[in-house]
Design brief:
505 residues, elongated, 15 helices, 15 strands, Rossmann fold, 48% helix, alpha/beta, disordered C terminus, 13-stranded mixed sheet
C-alpha cells in the first residue's frame, strides 16, 4: 500500500501503520519464520507494495502460489475482519503486471545463460567439484579465453575438456598440470547434471537482466520464476539465483542513493544458498550483497530461521520481518534467543517471548528509519494481499505468457559457432592434414618400391647379358683357339714339309 512520499505501508501495530522508507528499501531485508506462519503472504504483500510504487520485483515460486499475484483478489471473512484494524474501508483488489519464467521453458519464458556467463566458480559449485577439479576447470576456462573459444553450452565445455586433456603436455608449462583423472570426474559430473535437465539452462539467447527492470502503466513488473521443478535440484536452484544476482551486480550501472530501488530481488529458501558452501564463495556472496545496493537492487532473503543466514551477510539485512519460530529443543531455544537479539528492543514487550507467541499473519517488524538506523521492533499484523492468494490456472498462465512483451524473444534457442564447432573444424583439418601426409607417404613408398623394382629389373637384365656375353666369348675363344691351333698346325706342317722337302729334294 504505497503512499506518495515513498512510504511503503506493510504492516499495522498497536501504534498504527508501519512503513518501510523507500530510499532504505535497497538496504536489503529478511523474511523468516517457521513453515505455515505466513512468509509467502508477507512476500506477496511486499511485492505488491513495491509494484504500486513502480519498483519491479523478482521472485521464485516454489509451489505455484505466487502466480496469483497476477490476478485480482477478492473479499473474504478474514480480510473483512482485518479491514477495520488496518483503517481500510474498500480494498481495491487488483493484480500486478506479471511475467513468468522457467529454466525448463515449460511454465514461462526460458531463462538461459552461457557457460562463460556462469563462470568456473559457480559452475564448480553446481557440479560439486573438489578443489583440484575446480582448479582444472579454471585452467580450461583460461585456455578457452586465451584462444578465443566461446563456451556457450555443455557440448562446448565437454569438447574443451577433451581438447585440454589430449593436449595436456602442451599446456602444463604455461597453465599447470592437467590430470586426466580429474578431467574424467568433471565429465561425469556434467553427464549427471545433463541427465537432470540442467543442460536446458545453458545456451543462447542468454537472458538479459535488464528485462527484469520493466514497468507497465507506472507499475513495476513482477518477474515470477516457476521453481517447483527447479527445486528438485537445490544446487541448481541456488546457483542459478546466485548467477542472476551476480549478473545484476555486473551489468547494472552505479546509481547511488535513489528514492526507490530499481529492483527488489526475493531469494526464497535462502538456506539452500549457504548449505555446503565454501567460505571463499560465502565471502564472494557477501561482497555482491554489500555492493549490489549501490546498483539500486535490494535483496530480501526468505527462510525458515534467521540462523540460516551467515552472520557476515545477516548484518547487512536492515529491514526485518520475523514470523513465529518453534523452540522444542535446546538448539531451537538458542536460535530464538539469537533472533531476538538481532532486533532493537521494545520496552513494551519481551522480544524472545513474543517470537514464540506469534500467530499466523503476525510478525515482529523492524524497518530502517530515514537515517538508516533500525527502528524499535514492533509486534504487528502483516497487511492482506490485494491480489489473488493461491495458484492461477494453466490457461491463465498461457494467456499471460502469450501477451507478454518477451513472448518470442527467448523461446527459440540458437547455436552459433563456438568452442565445439571450432575445435571440430580444427580436428577435421588436422585429420585432413594427417590423411594427406599418409597419402604422400604412401605415394613416396610406392615410388621407392617402383624404383627399386626397376633397379632390380635393370640389374637382372645386365646380369643376363653378361652371362650371355661370357658364353659367347668362351665359344669364340674356343673357336679361335681351335682355328689357331689348326692354322698353327698347318703352318707347322708346311714349314716341316718345306724344310724336309728342301732336304729330300
Amino acid at each position: 500500500m504505497y503512499t506518495d512520499d515513498n512510504q511503503l505501508y506493510i504492516a499495522h501495530c498497536d501504534n498504527g501503520p508501519l512503513y518501510m522508507v523507500g530510499k532504505m528499501a535497497n538496504r536489503h531485508g529478511l523474511i523468516a519464520g517457521a513453515t505455515g506462519t505466513g512468509k509467502t503472504v508477507t512476500l506477496q504483500v511486499l511485492a505488491e507494495t513495491f509494484c504500486e510504487a513502480g519498483v519491479p520485483c523478482f521472485m521464485a515460486d516454489m509451489k505455484g502460489d505466487l502466480s496469483g499475484i497476477s490476478q485480482a483478489g477478492k473479499m473474504s471473512g478474514f480480510i473483512e475482519k482485518r479491514c477495520p484494524e488496518f483503517g481500510i474501508e474498500n480494498p481495491d483488489f487488483h493484480g500486478c503486471p506479471t511475467r513468468f519464467f522457467d529454466v525448463f521453458g515449460e511454465q514461462g519464458h526460458p531463462l538461459r545463460a552461457t557457460i562463460s556467463d556462469m563462470g568456473p566458480q559457480l559452475l564448480a559449485r553446481l557440479l560439486d567439484l573438489n578443489e583440484t577439479q575446480t582448479g582444472i576447470l579454471n585452467i580450461v576456462f583460461k585456455i578457452a579465453d586465451d584462444r578465443g573459444l566461446l563456451l556457450i553450452d555443455m557440448k562446448d565445455l565437454r569438447m574443451m575438456l577433451d581438447y585440454v586433456a589430449k593436449n595436456a603436455k602442451e599446456f602444463t608449462t604455461t597453465y599447470g598440470t592437467v590430470s586426466s583423472v580429474s578431467v574424467g570426474a568433471i565429465q561425469r559430473a556434467l553427464l549427471a547434471m545433463e541427465a537432470e535437465g540442467a543442460d536446458l539452462f545453458f545456451g543462447e539467447p542468454s537472458f538479459n537482466v535488464f528485462d527484469f527492470l520493466q514497468t507497465e502503466g507506472g507499475k513495476g513488473v513482477m518477474n515470477v520464476l516457476a521453481a517447483d521443478k527447479l527445486m528438485l535440484n537445490p544446487k541448481l536452484y541456488s546457483t542459478f539465483l546466485l548467477w542472476l544476482l551476480s549478473e545484476l551486480y555486473t551489468q547494472l550501472p552505479e546509481v547511488g542513493d535513489l528514492p526507490l530501488p530499481k529492483l527488489i530481488f526475493f531469494f526464497d529458501e535462502a538456506h539452500m544458498l549457504f548449505k555446503d558452501t565454501s567460505k571463499a564463495l560465502v565471502d564472494k556472496i557477501e561482497q555482491v550483497i554489500r555492493l549490489v545496493r549501490s546498483k539500486g537492487v535490494g535483496v530480501y532473503f526468505v527462510t525458515q530461521s534467521p540462523s540460516d543466514i551467515p552472520e557476515v551477510i545477516a548484518g547487512q539485512l536492515g529491514n526485518r520481518v520475523l514470523h513465529g519460530l518453534r523452540a522444542y529443543t535446546p538448539k531451537d531455544q538458542k536460535t530464538v534467543k539469537a533472533a531476538a537479539q538481532t532486533f532493537r528492543a521494545n520496552p513494551s514487550f519481551n522480544t524472545e517471548a513474543a517470537i514464540l507467541e506469534l500467530g499466523t499473519g503476525e510478525a515482529l517488524v523492524s524497518f530502517l528509519d530515514e537515517k538508516g538506523a533500525p527502528c524499535v521492533v514492533e509486534r504487528a499484523k502483516i497487511l492482506f494481499p490485494l491480489s489473488q492468494i493461491g495458484a492461477i490456472t494453466d490457461d491463465q498462465r498461457r494467456d499471460l505468457i502469450r501477451r507478454s512483451r518477451l513472448y518470442g524473444v527467448y523461446d527459440k534457442s540458437f547455436d552459433r559457432e563456438s568452442a565445439y564447432e571450432m575445435l571440430v573444424a580444427e580436428q577435421k583439418q588436422e585429420e585432413k592434414r594427417l590423411q594427406k601426409e599418409a597419402e604422400e607417404e604412401e605415394k613416396r613408398k610406392a615410388k621407392e618400391a617402383k624404383e627399386k623394382e626397376r633397379a632390380r629389373s635393370t640389374s637382372s637384365r645386365s646380369t643376363s647379358t653378361r652371362k650371355k656375353k661370357s658364353a659367347g666369348q668362351k665359344a669364340l675363344e674356343k673357336t679361335l683357339n681351335t682355328t689357331a691351333t689348326t692354322i698353327g698346325r698347318g703352318i707347322g706342317n708346311k714349314i716341316v714339309r718345306s724344310i724336309l722337302g728342301s732336304i729330300f729334294k
